[in-house]
Design goal:
By secondary structure, the protein is α+β, with helices and mostly antiparallel strands. It folds into four domains: about 150 residues, no CATH class; about 150 residues, Galactose-binding domain-like (Jelly Rolls, Sandwich); about 60 residues; about 50 residues. It has seven helices and 30 strands. Strands 18, 22, 23, 24, 25, 26 and 28 form a seven-stranded antiparallel beta sheet that branches. A five-stranded antiparallel beta sheet has the order 5-11-7-8-6, with helices on one face. A four-stranded antiparallel barrel has the order 1-3-2-4.
Length: about 575
């Protein structure tokens, strides 16, 4: 199926190349094309050195995606996904021609050309019930609808009908179809796409996903924020007779205004004005140390430590594809695609597990599990209250019951949800060092042996999450290589010495766990061996330093005593010394 999709992408590139060639090679309008500054991207092509934003755009002309990301003043990336937005001021490195081109660890993202493919999810017979709807202008594009639904924080949108863009958070499907994607150009603008559907299913409604591939400039809204507009009415108007809602300005009330009501930014964000490519830029940003995620919330930046890590299973259904239902393969659990169509599936009643090997020890904070696409509610319910387990070591060939041989992280929701949105499980203990994350059905459903997931994401613990599970104690994060270790200490122990002692203890505990893992796990990585050697060096230093200090201290004390005796003999004379000894 993925090969078919890839072939489809290539065919679409050939079909649209003629229409897009003049646009792709046109100079980019930096003000209009700039999207924002980001910490994380997914690149389909990387060029080590370019001299400008336009040069990067040319490098990505033949890519199916329409966004580019520049880093550190020279690196160019053609990207298909992005997340973790930060203030544009963090993209503070310029290219040779003084364009804004990212930072040392951040990416300046631009729209380089019109979008030619969209994130199609599924074709269905019945339109979904909408949560929110916008009346689009006559010159609408499919991308306008995607941006509106994303701005209003909805996960899905569907085929535009009668100029109406409708968004919804969860889908209710009873059957669907997935085939090659076909996108048709707008009649009023042959450079833009107005409709996409799956091959042979044009008459059906296509569902699209917003969270993965889209983002847009937050300086300008997709709809007019007119004062006294009808509740629930969303559209673009040329003017607003009663003025703008607080936080907005301009004739159509679409420009964000930081001087009014904080620019209507969400709670926890701040409206700021900065200069990007010599132009004024307004955006809502998260506090220092946090990023804006795809759900328009602020959080500490974390990488998915399970991405592309090796998955293991107690059993496997043979790889295969069923149109509109699923495509099964063992690699899908950690491939970064969570649309619910590409799934991993087991087929045994005991021990009935699926797991990911993180290749190193981590303190796991939480996981995100994405369910399969299921037309039958019973298939969704298979993951009701699923169990997440952790362990330092794991015999992936064993057929024994593992429930009493692993550590518990936590449980999934009582009622599992459909594909497209994550089921988040926070671990009950942030101090457990784990290399393996294991998923099982609940004890009540374990006998079914038919667990399946589209994607498993794993993230490290941190003090920002429930105070690191330290309860009334103070939480401190200790870096150990590329891993984070949580340290808890009493509130009154606030001296530097106590904090250092606590940090050292956390490192010793982590290193000890790593050492045990080396001897127990035959597949332990060389990095753990390096950690073990570092521990030996630390122990050696801790033993030798006190000895050296003791020798130096007593030697110095002896010299002082000898000098005192010499001075004494000079002051009292030889006779006094002799009389004193009689």
């Amino acid at each position: 199926m993925k090969q078919n999709l890839a072939l489809n992408y290539d065919l679409n590139k050939i079909l649209i190349q003629k229409n897009l060639s003049s646009v792709a090679y046109a100079a980019i309008d930096l003000k209009e094309s700039y999207i924002g500054c980001y910490r994380n991207i997914s690149s389909t092509k990387t060029v080590a050195t370019v001299g400008s934003v336009n040069e990067c755009s040319l490098e990505c002309t033949d890519e199916r995606n329409n966004m580019i990301a520049l880093k550190n003043g020279e690196e160019c990336n053609c990207i298909e996904k992005l997340d973790s937005a930060v203030a544009s001021s963090q993209c503070d490195v310029i290219c040779d021609n003084v364009d804004d081109c990212g930072g040392s660890h951040t990416y300046s993202v631009y729209k380089s050309k019109p979008r030619v493919m969209h994130d199609t999810y599924l074709s269905v017979k019945i339109r979904q019930t909408e949560n929110i709807m916008m009346i689009l202008p006559a010159s609408f594009t499919l991308e306008m609808c995607a941006h509106f639904c994303f701005e209003t924080n909805h996960t899905f949108f569907q085929t535009i009908k009668s100029g109406r863009c409708s968004c919804f958070q969860e889908h209710q499907i009873t059957g669907g179809y997935v085939q090659e994607q076909i996108c048709e150009k707008c009649k009023h603008d042959l450079n833009e796409v107005c409709e996409c559907y799956h091959k042979n299913h044009q008459s059906k409604t296509t569902i699209f996903s917003t969270r993965s591939q889209y983002d847009f400039q937050r300086r300008v809204s997709t709809y007019s924020h007119c004062r006294n507009r009808n509740n629930g009415s969303y559209e673009i108007t040329t003017n607003c007779p009663d003025g703008c809602d607080p936080g907005w300005r301009g004739d159509s009330c679409r420009e964000r205004d930081c001087s009014s009501d904080g620019g209507d930014c969400p709670v926890g964000m701040k409206c700021i004005e900065s200069t990007v490519n010599d132009e004024n830029f307004v955006e809502c940003v998260c506090p220092s140390g946090k990023v804006r995620n795809k759900w328009y919330q602020c959080e500490v930046f974390r990488m998915n430590i399970a991405l592309h890590k090796p998955p293991y299973y107690s059993s496997l259904w043979p790889s295969g594809t069923v149109d509109g239902m699923y495509s099964k393969n063992q690699v899908y659990l950690t491939d970064g695609i969570h649309n619910g169509y590409f799934i991993s599936h087991i087929n045994d009643v005991m021990p009935a597990w699926m797991a990911v090997d993180l290749l190193n020890l981590y303190c796991v904070g939480f996981i995100k599990a994405y369910n399969r696409l299921a037309a039958v509610p019973q298939n969704v319910d298979r993951m009701n209250k699923f169990v997440v387990r952790l362990n330092e070591t794991f015999d992936t060939t064993s057929k024994n019951d593992i429930r009493n041989q692993t550590n518990l992280c936590g449980y999934g929701p009582e009622k599992a949800i459909q594909s497209g949105n994550p089921m988040v499980v926070f671990c009950e203990d942030f101090t457990i060092f784990s290399r393996f994350v294991i998923i099982q059905q609940s004890d009540e459903r374990l006998h079914e042996g038919v667990a399946s997931l589209a994607e498993l994401e794993v993230f490290e613990a941190g003090c920002d999450l429930f105070n690191g599970r330290c309860e009334n104690k103070t939480c401190e994060e200790v870096k150990n290589g590329n891993r984070m270790v949580i340290s808890c200490f009493d509130v009154y122990a606030t001296t530097t010495a106590n904090r250092n002692f606590s940090a050292a203890a956390a490192n010793r505990n982590f290193s000890a766990a790593a050492t045990v893992s080396i001897y127990i796990t035959s597949t332990a990585s060389t990095e753990l061996l390096k950690t073990n050697l570092n521990v030996l060096w630390v122990i050696l230093v801790l033993l030798v330093l006190p000895v050296i200090f003791a020798i130096w201290f007593f030697s110095k004390k002896k010299k002082k005593a000898d000098k005192a005796n010499e001075l004494s003999s000079k002051y009292y004379g030889k006779d006094d010394l002799e009389s004193a000894t009689d």
